[in-house]
UniProtKB/TrEMBL annotation, chain A:
A lipid is attached at residue 115 (Phosphatidylserine amidated glycine). Coiled coil: none annotated. InterPro entries: Atg8-like, Ubiquitin-like_domsf. Keywords: Autophagy, Lipoprotein, Membrane. GO terms for biological process: autophagy. Belongs to the ATG8 family. This is Autophagy-related protein. Gene3D superfamilies: Phosphatidylinositol 3-kinase Catalytic Subunit, Chain A, domain 1 (3.10.20.90). It comes from the Eukaryota. It is found in: Membrane. Its main location: membrane. GO terms for cellular component: membrane. The keyword Lipoprotein applies.
From TrEMBL, chain B:
Belongs to the peptidase C54 family. It is found in: Cytoplasm. The lineage of its organism: Eukaryota, Sar, Alveolata, Ciliophora, Intramacronucleata. It is an enzyme of class 3 (hydrolase). This is Cysteine protease. It catalyses: [protein]-C-terminal L-amino acid-glycyl-phosphatidylethanolamide + H2O = [protein]-C-terminal L-amino acid-glycine + a 1,2-diacyl-sn-glycero-3-phosphoethanolamine. GO terms for molecular function: cysteine-type endopeptidase activity; protein-phosphatidylethanolamide deconjugating activity. Signal peptide: none annotated. Its EC number is 3.4.22.-. Residues 66-323 form the Peptidase C54 catalytic domain. Cysteine protease that plays a key role in autophagy by mediating both proteolytic activation and delipidation of ATG8 family proteins. It comes from Euplotes crassus.
């Protein structure tokens, strides 16, 4: 993700504009694991997601992509806040939380543990 | 002052209070909002030090609080146990396991009270606590730390010495209950809703001839570094819900069992005391499973990983629970924590997409 943000803002802006125009039913997102997380990384971090997809479904897709079993905890954050409620559509999440560059940044991580 | 506590009508369930409190603005129609209105009407103010505990008890006096706390099983680190992979004590690593044991023991005591209400709390403790004895194996002590560690190793590869979180321990307790606690499992199912979504289909009793009760754990993360303030009103509603049996939580790296709250934070039972392991429950050893000691954690100290736990004794309470989840969705429309669905739906799209312009298109 650092690599991605190191590109100039103008470049990122034009990238997002381009895909939004080309794929009017999708939203562009960047999804990656938190730097402290021990969970597996995603193969890719740039996605175009159907606007109508629900948050819960998006979360389930990422879980599958990193081959994480249902017994493992997985939490998602946008802008350092918990991912909005599970019934929201990705379009709503995008509209409310997108970066100035036109991408939505989503971070995932595991649970905290105690002894 | 000998007036020990105010006990408000314990059966203010969502439908009733929705109907009766329409004059309240929607955000005040929370259980806490209604309580505050009732209290104002009867001229009582919730003071800083008052704790609110499920079943709507507002506890002002220390003596009464002690009594309530002592009615919840207290399970701590133990030493002098039969060796588990070389460990004779769980000090320093077993706190989340102990917190989960407290929650389960609390649920089983409630389950016993529901089914056999003629007994005293002491008698319920005598029946339930042997299930948790540390040295018991397999069916001798179904919910023992030995069984928990064995199942933990099997299903999520966590053995003795390793730390748990609210999510992982819920998975393990559910499995231990199913595998070893067969006697109680006949009438009490353990369900975890891992994605923060309650699936109604998981709470159906398939045998209408007999009541089936449910122990529910909903593990969630409610913030990145700190609990997001926006969620605190919801945590309060959860803790005030009559069928809530507490929250598995803690502060960073130290698990605790939340059983109530006041303005500044939560009331907790703390497992971080190391007691000698016991091999049977007698009048004497039972004392090591009861305490009046409780700790206070401030809202900002809470760990962000937690699990909301509920005990629902019959169909009617399942129905009310489902109504309440949808009520919470209405009361907290922008940020409700617990979702509600009829059942698990198949994935609407392929999880692998074409790559174009360096994007994966789903």
């Amino acid at each position: 993700m650092k690599d991605f943000k190191s590109q100039p803002l103008e470049k990122r802006k034009s990238d997002s504009k381009k895909v939004l125009k080309k794929f009017p039913t999708k939203v562009p997102i960047i999804c990656y694991k938190d730097h402290n997380s021990v969970l597996p990384s995603l193969e890719k971090d740039k996605y175009l997601i159907p606007k109508s997809l629900k948050v819960l479904e998006f979360e389930q897709i990422i879980r599958k992509k990193i081959s994480l079993g249902e017994k493992e905890a997985l939490a998602f954050f946008v802008n350092e806040k918990l991912m909005p409620k599970k019934d929201s559509t990705m379009d709503e999440v995008y509209a409310q939380n997108k970066d100035e560059d036109g991408f939505l940044y989503i971070v995932y991580m595991e649970e905290n543990i105690s002894g | 002052m000998e007036k020990l506590s105010y006990q408000i009508h314990p059966k203010i369930h969502c439908k009733e209070y929705e109907n009766n409190f329409e004059f309240l603005s929607p955000e005040k129609r929370t259980r806490l909002g209604v309580i505050q209105v009732i209290l104002k009407l009867i001229g009582f103010e919730i003071e800083e030090e008052c704790y609110l505990i499920g079943r709507l008890e507002i506890v002002k006096s220390q003596t009464y609080l002690n009594k309530l706390v002592s009615q919840i099983p207290w399970i701590t680190y133990r030493k002098g146990m039969k060796s588990i992979n070389g460990y004779k004590s769980d000090e320093g690593w077993g706190c989340m396991i102990r917190v989960a044991q407290m929650m389960c023991a609390h649920a089983f005591v409630k389950h016993n009270q529901y089914r056999f209400n003629e007994f005293t709390i002491q008698q319920h403790f005598e029946t339930i606590l042997p299930l948790f004895l540390d040295n018991g194996e397999d069916f001798e002590a179904p919910m023992s730390i030995r069984n928990i560690l064995k199942v933990g190793k099997e299903i999520i590869d966590k053995g003795p010495g390793q730390w748990y979180g609210a999510h992982s321990i819920s998975q393990v307790m559910k499995e231990v209950h199913l595998m070893y606690n067969t006697h109680i499992e006949k009438t009490l199912g353990f369900v975890t809703f891992n994605e923060g979504v309650v699936y109604k289909s998981d709470l159906i009793n398939e045998d209408p001839e007999n009541d089936r009760s449910f122990l529910i754990s909903i593990p969630l993360r409610v913030g990145l570094e700190k609990v997001d303030k926006a969620y605190i009103p919801q945590l309060k509603e959860v803790l005030l819900y009559p069928d809530c049996i507490g929250i598995l939580g803690g502060k960073r790296h130290a698990a605790m069992y939340y059983i109530g709250f006041n303005r500044s934070g939560v009331l907790t039972l703390d497992p971080h005391t190391t007691q000698k392991c016991v091999n049977e429950i007698t009048e004497e050893t039972l004392k090591t499973y009861r305490t009046i000691k409780h700790k206070h954690l401030k809202w900002h100290q809470l760990d962000t990983t937690m699990a909301f736990c509920f005990y629902l004794n019959n169909e009617e309470s399942v129905e009310k629970f489902i109504q309440t989840i949808s009520l919470w969705k209405e009361l907290f429309p922008d940020d409700y924590l617990i979702g509600l669905r009829d059942s698990k739906a198949p994935m609407p799209i392929d999880i692998e997409g074409e790559i174009e312009d360096d994007f994966e298109i789903l």
